[in-house]
Amino acid sequence: MSAPPETPKSRKVTVRTLARMRRGGEPIAMVTAYDYPGARLAERAGIDVVLVGDSLAMVVLGHENTLAVTLDEMLHHARAVRRGASTPLLVGDLPFLSYQAEVAEAVRSAGRFLQEAGMDAVKLEGGRRMAAQVEAIAGAGIPVMGHLGLTPQSVHALGGWRVQARSAGTARDLLDDALALERAGCFALVLESVPARLAELVTRRLSIPTIGIGAGAGTSGQVLVLHDLLGLFDRFTPKFARRYAELGREAVTALAAFRDDVRAGRFPTAEHAYEMSDESWAALAELLTEEGGAGTPATGPRRLAGRR
Fold this sequence. Notes:
Layout: H1 15-24, E1 28-32, H2 36-44, E2 49-52, H3 56-59, H4 71-84, E3 89-93, H5 103-115, E4 121-123, H6 131-139, E5 144-149, H7 155-158, H8 168-184, E6 188-192, H9 196-205, E7 210-213, E8 221-224, H10 226-229, H11 247-264, H12 278-290
Parallel strand pairs: 1-2, 1-8, 2-3, 3-4, 4-5, 5-6, 6-7, 7-8
């Protein structure tokens, strides 16, 4: 089967690009990526925004939630993504405790994503209580993406992985938070696990793009975790995640076939081996003979027990 056509962007995607897409009603496609191969795939597919998400704590590092990943670990993965993709807008996720405690620390953490990892922007979680951090980071010349609804760094305070803002009061709070983040300087906003009608309302009330994940089709764009959409993460599958491939299943099948071929002696074959010339082989035999004969190479190819 032939490979699908690639749809690379002809120009670098910037925050101005996203603003223009939002005004023109052009949906924004965003995915997470955590390493060079993932970033290369996203760029080749023409993805608009690549987020180096703190979800790497779960899908790459194996933690139970996002709280354990550190700023240094995030920067390590962000640098790999930067090497793999240059055309999409690259956003680094500020991890837990890298921005909540002090405004100055938030600015320093955000700055490291640009200075050390080559990101174009950063993302942080929280509403009005994070307005001062957003204003300070944006004031330092660093584009900031907000994140409302189900905010994974607050999973314990929220009582688990729950849909948010289902009551009139909490829905109004979320709308107020969104407006506050826009006023503070966010260039875009992620809405996660909120009712579709509410996400559409927030999108209409804001002038900045909204990126939905489990928030219906009424947002300015959509984001999915790369490992979810490719079928590489099997611990659980969120309701909002659509699997576009089952690469995890195919990988297990491929690995099992490799195991069987090794055990049966079908791999490697001659086509997978490197050889040396007969002259060099004879010269080696002569050298070993002069040294006493021990370890003199056999005259023919080595045969292993059980190999056919």
